[in-house]
Predict the 3D structure of the following.
Amino acid sequence: MRILLDTHVLLWAAGAPERIPERTRLLLESESNELVFSSASIWEVVIKRGLGREDFRVDPERLRRLLVAHGYVELPVTSDHALGVIALPRLHKDPFDRILLSQARAEELHLLTADRKLLRYGSPVLDLFGG
């Protein structure tokens, strides 16, 4: 399975794995799954860290290096991804989450998230908590 991780899931995987349920950690640790992060997530960390958000205190350069070193595949944002946002219903206003969803749809990835608003889109969104 190819899994695109939402930004918070990336942060938890890198710095607070105890926040991820064991069942989901096993999914992330399985060698049969390809783990993907979006360049949009790194951009989100840069912006929100710059705004002083407590939940985004991680160094984005270090985060990217760690993800790549651990075998995560980086997915750049393309104009096709940006245009895919047009087709999304207005269930969620966060531009970072909307581009991640568009990327997941365009690239046939599963988007792993804990965000209840994103879960309302249904497939290809996966619930981090399995609910």
In short: The helical segments are 7-15, 22-29, 39-50, 60-69, 79-84, 95-107, 116-119. The longest helix spans residues 95-107.
